Structure prediction request, 239 residues.
Amino acid sequence: MDEWLKHSTEVEASWVTADLTIFTVREGQLMVLLVERGVEPFLGRPALPGGYIQKDETLREGALRELWEEAGIDGRRLHLEQLGAYGEPRRDPRGRVVTIAYLALGPDLPAPVGGTDAERAYWAPVAQLQSEAQALAFDHAEILSDALEEVRTKLEYTAVATAFCGDSFTLSELRKVYEVIWGQVLDPSNFRRKVLNTPGFVQPTGEQRLPPTGRPAALYRRGTAWLLSPPLLRGGQQS
Prediction:
């Protein structure tokens, strides 16, 4: 006990940062926002956008500010939630840094613009990064992996898939979100039945979209429910 008490007094200053994993679906692929670091450490390496939290702002305010400064994206328009805390002692070579990771989702987000300590900002295919995870700075490969699994799981039990869609969308567009993120092809008729039989998942707008060819498609908006019952499970089974 005495040894434990001795070590408990050896406390050094720690810094707090916010890092953001921002997903969108573009060109039929799941994309994540990356920045090319313009300063050391990891100069020139790709990283998730983020930075130090200022002393007079909340964690969320710091995350939103960093997103705007490094990529020119207004995070207030996104689905934004905390993913978790990452605090391995040597995760940052500059010293003891604990980061609060955020998960953000949005529909077909615009091209980002790099700023502050980011040389440039760009969208990268998640599938490509999974095979090149070692290229990411800090422990951002781990954060990206955790964020991806979190989104895949939330698609089963919540209406978060609608965050990837616009104000109105077709069921085909919603199905494409599931297919891109889960990495599997879904039967259109079965998917439509499950969505429409899940209370509060979507609501019809009463309007239609006219495609270049084929029949008009009914438009929907997000419904009133957040938790889905029954869930849409990845294995194709509904509980």
